[in-house]
From TrEMBL, chain A:
<protein>
    <recommendedName>
        <fullName>Actin-related protein 5</fullName>
    </recommendedName>
</protein>
<keyword id="KW-0539">Nucleus</keyword>
<dbReference type="Pfam" id="PF00022">
    <property type="entry name" value="Actin"/>
</dbReference>
<feature type="compositionally biased region" description="Acidic residues">
    <location>
        <begin position="369"/>
        <end position="379"/>
    </location>
</feature>
<comment type="similarity">
    <text>Belongs to the actin family. ARP5 subfamily.</text>
</comment>
<dbReference type="GO" id="GO:0030029">
    <property type="term" value="P:actin filament-based process"/>
</dbReference>
<feature type="region of interest" description="Disordered">
    <location>
        <begin position="466"/>
        <end position="490"/>
    </location>
</feature>
<feature type="compositionally biased region" description="Basic and acidic residues">
    <location>
        <begin position="412"/>
        <end position="441"/>
    </location>
</feature>
<feature type="compositionally biased region" description="Polar residues">
    <location>
        <begin position="470"/>
        <end position="482"/>
    </location>
</feature>
Automatic annotation (TrEMBL), chain B:
<dbReference type="Pfam" id="PF08265">
    <property type="entry name" value="YL1_C"/>
</dbReference>
<dbReference type="InterPro" id="IPR029525">
    <property type="entry name" value="INO80C/Ies6"/>
</dbReference>
<keyword id="KW-0804">Transcription</keyword>
<feature type="domain" description="Vps72/YL1 C-terminal">
    <location>
        <begin position="68"/>
        <end position="97"/>
    </location>
</feature>
<dbReference type="GO" id="GO:0005634">
    <property type="term" value="C:nucleus"/>
</dbReference>
<protein>
    <recommendedName>
        <fullName>Vps72/YL1 C-terminal domain-containing protein</fullName>
    </recommendedName>
</protein>
<dbReference type="InterPro" id="IPR013272">
    <property type="entry name" value="Vps72/YL1_C"/>
</dbReference>
<keyword id="KW-0805">Transcription regulation</keyword>
<keyword id="KW-0539">Nucleus</keyword>
Length: 723, 119
């Protein structure tokens, strides 16, 4: 881990005389503070501030840097996340900066009435004068600092490495930092800011990209991909591909190399508790309960039935009694006699009797007599005696009867025919089944294959039909109802309907209205009606076939699984939840992401930043130099130093060299070296610079600042060559 | 009172520091903290005439052809889905892509700063 916080309070502050400067590397990600002339900063921490509420007292407190998460339980952080003083790489929130400086000086052990040491603090390349002056004011007015100097971190790193012989007095420093990446050309040991380049991309963006990609890939686990976790994964796994396209192809083709390069991260996964099979006792108990309930239900049904039978018997009894009474009544008195009972005639009464008798028989569960059976046996001549008699020999009454008989005869015959047909069909089916069974016995595997193929084909056909019906968008099963959404194109039927409606709506006033003159005109309404498009006059033969095949397959194929509607193909990002979770769902796969994320340093447009990447920046910097000088350019490219946290990514040097070679003229010397310590060299360079006797010449006091004014501060630049 | 552990760990920055001439609580009484600072864009206005300023050292756009990669997988992406505007590598990815929720689509687009802005 290249980034380690050190926040232990120093005890030797008072040992340093006021002449020893304090050196601060104020980076957007980390803050480092220490004494001039030393090789290591004393205090290092993440450059962030949190202002949560202390739960016990309700006070708002200040917490700087990363702290032990266990300690955060005392605070209510819901309303304040970590905040930074930086916008891009420029300090703009000086309140936060003040908290950070408070913490830093406190941990350095400061105890007097002011910070009585000159201060060298780093800033970004071409820091806006507003930011620089605010920082100076803060140091002078709040901390009582006697003198201040500003320098650029990347430049200090270059000078430090130049002193250690890693690079020449002419060269380029490439510094991929936290939020920005810079290139600064050095000529005669001095940085040329006119020739520098800044692309607004850095380690922050790489981590953020990784975080977003992973949480999109695993929406179910998005909460575990915190900023800190993503940063950790980046530092551990990310590398820069020598050539993105060829590297990604390896992964696309699933080569062995790609397999080896894929990293897996198994999240803790607890298998869902397997339900223990119920014990014998349990089963018996349940069965007993079920039995008991069944018994009770049966009893209830029985009671109901018997009471119903009773009721009907009573009714029948009274009806019979009525009929008997009726027998004794004179023919003429019948209507008056019946008017009390609610029946109008003897026939009606009799038919009621027969109905009730039948219902009773049914309720008792007596075998139903089937009149059809013996009807067949009766000669049709006997049953329909009038049919064969010519009309002219019959009375009108008899003709009526004849018609009735004819009707009865045809319906009975029709019924018979239908039954026969059913029987035949059944026989045919039986025969076909037998045939298939035989074929199966002959060659079971082939038969199974064939069945499966058939099933698949029919399934596809059915789904195709379904899709066509519901406007063709159901490929993903996202929209179950076939409604029109998200610019869907309509199905053919719907389109036609819309067309008809619109023409009908606007077909007015052109000449005279002849609608309805022809009968066909009215067909229009039929076409327009909404259910027109889901007409199913005949049951879908394909669907029937599908049902048959699937049931058959279920019988003979143990591995067969009926396809569930709307089932998705394997989708890695699919949120589990429909199916039981498996260990696989808790495995985070980091493959292409390993080099896709750092790739944005070379191609910022992958994350929508339209600027040149690292390799092209070097070329852009050289072009920006005021005079074209081939020899100088040659010297510059033969001493390229990479520094800054992001240059630690594996494969950076090779890729940079390769990229710069592509944009430079053929035969140029390209030499890229990595800084000794890309993270700490800036502070070390600054420390060495501040330890030099000439340091104070580069610093300015409060008096200077207020006398010389803003314009002077804008042009302020230290001379790095003292180093 | 702070809990003992907290005091021991010295997590909280003390409100009063002897080495300061003006304390933070005097400068920033409660409720004054937010929105008082100029944002970067405003800060940069002051330096517009400077020959080598923060704005002028900004990198130019790239001259290399824009690399198009699949938004979901990172593979080379020859295709663009006209409905979602996402880039994709092959039919399989396309299937996944169509199963994404509008929210996810928006997220993918906003990663490369291509999401439609709702104003």
């Amino acid at each position: 881990m290249p980034f380690v916080s050190k926040t232990r309070r120093q005890t030797d502050y008072n040992r340093f005389p006021p002449s020893v400067p304090i050196v601060i590397d104020n980076g957007a990600s980390y803050f480092r503070i220490g004494w001039a002339g030393e090789t290591e900063p004393r205090v290092v921490f993440r450059n962030i501030v949190q202002r949560p509420r202390h739960k016990a007292t309700g006070e708002t407190v200040t917490i700087v840097g990363d702290q032990d998460p266990a300690m955060m339980k005392f605070f209510d952080c819901t309303r304040s996340g970590p905040r930074s003083a930086f916008d891009s790489n420029v300090v703009y929130q000086f309140e936060i900066m003040e908290y950070i400086l408070d913490f830093a000086f406190d941990r350095l052990g400061a105890s007097g009435s002011s910070i009585d040491h000159p201060i060298l603090i780093t800033e970004c390349v071409c820091n806006p004068v507003y930011s620089r002056s605010k920082m100076a004011e803060l140091l002078f007015d709040t901390y009582g600092v006697p003198a201040v100097a500003f320098g650029v971190d990347a430049a200090f790193s270059y000078k430090y490495n130049q002193r250690h012989g890693k690079c020449q007095k002419d060269g380029i420093v490439i510094c991929p930092g936290f939020t920005t990446t810079h290139t600064i050309p050095f000529v005669e040991g001095e940085p040329v800011y006119k020739g520098s380049c800044r692309t607004n991309i850095g380690g922050y963006h790489v981590t953020d990209y990784l975080k977003q990609l992973l949480s999109l890939k695993y929406p179910f686990h998005s909460s575990i991909f915190t900023w800190e976790k993503a940063e950790e994964l980046k530092l551990e796994h990310c590398y820069i591909a020598p050539d993105y396209v060829s590297e990604v192809r390896k992964f696309q083709e699933g080569t062995k190399e790609a397999e080896e390069k894929t990293r897996y991260w198994q999240l803790p996964w607890i298998p869902p508790p397997v339900e223990a099979p119920p014990s014998e006792e349990e089963i018996a108990r349940k069965a007993a309960i079920r039995e008991k309930q069944g018994q009770r239900l049966r009893e209830m049904a029985e009671a109901k039935r018997s009471s119903k039978i009773n009721e009907m018997e009573n009714e029948l009894h009274s009806l019979h009694f009525l009929v008997k009474q009726l027998d004794q009544v004179e023919e003429d008195d019948i209507p008056s006699f019946l008017s009390d009972t609610g029946y109008t005639s003897r026939q009606e009464l009799e038919s009621t009797v027969s109905k009730v008798t039948q219902a009773l028989r049914k309720a008792r569960g007596d075998p139903k007599d089937e009149p059809d059976e013996f009807e067949e046996n009766i000669d049709s001549n006997e049953k329909y005696p009038l049919l064969n008699v010519p009309d002219n020999m019959l009375t009108p009454e008899q003709i009526k009867d004849k018609k009735k008989q004819l009707f009865l005869k045809t319906t009975t015959e029709g019924r018979l025919r239908a039954r026969q047909k059913r029987n035949e069909e059944e026989l045919e089916k039986e025969r076909r089944n037998q045939l298939e069974e035989e074929r199966r016995r002959e060659n079971p595997e082939f038969y199974l294959e064939e069945m499966r193929a058939q099933y698949k084909e029919v399934l596809e056909r059915v789904e195709q039909k379904k899709r066509l019906k519901t406007n063709g968008s159901n490929t993903n099963g996202n929209q179950k109802s076939g409604n029109v959404g998200r610019g869907e194109r309509l199905s053919a039927a719907k389109r036609e309907r819309m067309r008809l409606l619109t023409t009908a709506a606007f077909d007015r006033g052109k000449g005279e209205d002849t609608f309805g003159a022809k009968d066909e005109d009215w067909q229009l309404y039929k076409l327009m009606s909404k259910d027109n498009d889901d007409d199913d006059e005949r049951p879908d033969s394909d669907e029937a076939e599908l049902a048959r095949l699937s049931s058959r397959l279920q019988e003979i194929d143990p591995t067969f699984e009926q396809k569930v509607e709307g089932e998705l193909g394997q989708a890695s990002g699919e949120a589990p939840g429909v199916r039981p979770l498996t260990e696989e769902d808790y495995k985070i796969v980091i493959g292409v992401e390993r080099f896709r994320c750092p790739e944005i340093l070379f191609h910022p447009n992958l994350v929508g930043i339209d600027q040149v990447g690292l390799d092209e920046m070097a070329g852009a910097s050289i072009r920006r130099l005021p005079h074209e000088d081939k020899e100088l350019e040659e010297r510059l490219t033969s001493s390229i130093l990479m520094t800054g946290g992001c240059s630690l990514v594996q494969g950076m040097k090779e890729r940079l060299e390769c990229g710069i070679r592509m944009i430079r003229p053929c035969g140029s010397t390209i030499n890229v070296v990595q800084a000794e310590d890309p993270v700490l060299d800036a502070w070390r360079g600054a420390s060495a610079f501040a330890a030099d006797l000439n340091f104070l010449k580069n610093a300015f006091t409060k008096k200077d600042y207020y006398e010389k004014g803003e314009d002077w501060l804008r042009g302020y630049q230290i001379q790095y060559n003292t180093l | 009172m702070m809990e003992g552990e907290l005091v021991d760990a010295e997590i909280v920055v003390p409100t009063h520091l002897s080495f300061k001439k003006t304390q933070a609580y005097e400068k920033y009484p409660k409720g004054q903290s937010r929105g008082r600072w100029k944002h970067l864009k405003q800060i940069l206005q002051a330096d517009l005439n400077d020959p080598s300023s923060y704005i002028s050292i900004e990198s130019p756009p790239s001259t290399q052809p824009c690399k198009r990669i699949c938004d979901v997988t990172g593979f080379e992406a020859p295709y663009v889905d006209p409905r979602t505007n996402l880039r994709y590598a092959n039919a399989q990815v396309f299937k996944t892509l169509r199963s994404l929720s509008p929210h996810q689509v928006h997220h993918y687009l906003s990663i490369r700063n291509a999401a439609p802005l709702l104003k």
